[in-house]
């Protein structure tokens, strides 16, 4: 008799701040070919600075660890560590105790890299047990501390849609904004849990996706911390090079050292440093302005690999026949917009999926 689903829980220990861990290899080491019987596999991360890339992106990069690492590095250059992130100004974080402020990692860069690079908490792959599937940790160590990470792997053969509907999410009049979909005022998670009970879904997935006509918006699963979402992310959406520019300022101390790289470094300033750059190096204003204009003309959505849909795992942690939405301690599905919505709402399509 074929078992409908198999669920595996793994603890991972990253070796460095940025670490890519082959979860399929770990499963094979501990459980042999257990997943080989299934056509599809879901991978779930319980963290907001560590997750998975969609299978389509990994295939475009040939499932190659080095190429995936280079992909991540390109976004880490946009969001360098120790830039002026409000999230990292721990004295402003009123939700933290004094003890937590002593131990809280300053990792605003990792959160923004997670959001911007297309990492997500939950992916479903066509099963290729012989190919690597990488758990990508952006914040695996801080100081002498190595984090302990959790991931769940679920093998299954088929999925069916048990329920599908639309929901309108109110958004503010601000053109750039973010909304936590776990906000109790929305009542969305309560409604989802009731529907899971009504449709008797014990093992499955909840899919949330923007409707096709909803433009200039995206979805992510991350920490809905006020300084991160209402300040740092908004700064990025206004100017994707904002934090790169802040770190790049140190390069202007000796402008004669970099004349051969003038065009590349022009990307750093965009807002704050263009005029100083032109004055210091005596470059052709028209040449540099053409380069800068090209970068300013590209919207934030082109720089950020912002997703239009996210998924949540449904499982039965107590094995009581009661399916629940799985979520990490700090995880929240978040709707982000970078242009004002026409009707002050955004419409999502919601699907409740059952695994077989």
Radius of gyration from CA coordinates: 22 Å
Strand order of the largest sheet: 10-17-12-14-15
Q: Provide the low-confidence segments as ranges.
A: 250-283, 291-299
In terms of DSSP E residues, the strand content is: 25-35%
Multimerization status: single chain
Q: Which structural class should the secondary elements be placed in?
A: alpha+beta
DSSP strand tally = 17
Helix proportion: 25-40%
Task: Return the average pLDDT rounded to an integer.
Answer: 84
The major beta sheet can be summarized as: 5 strands, antiparallel
Distance between the termini: 13 Å
Mass-distribution shape: globular
The sequence of SSEs as H and E is EEHEEHHHHEEEEEEEHEEHHHHHHEEEE
> What's the helix count?
12
Q: Key features?
A:
single chain; 356 residues; alpha+beta; 5-stranded antiparallel sheet; 4-stranded antiparallel sheet; 12 helices; globular
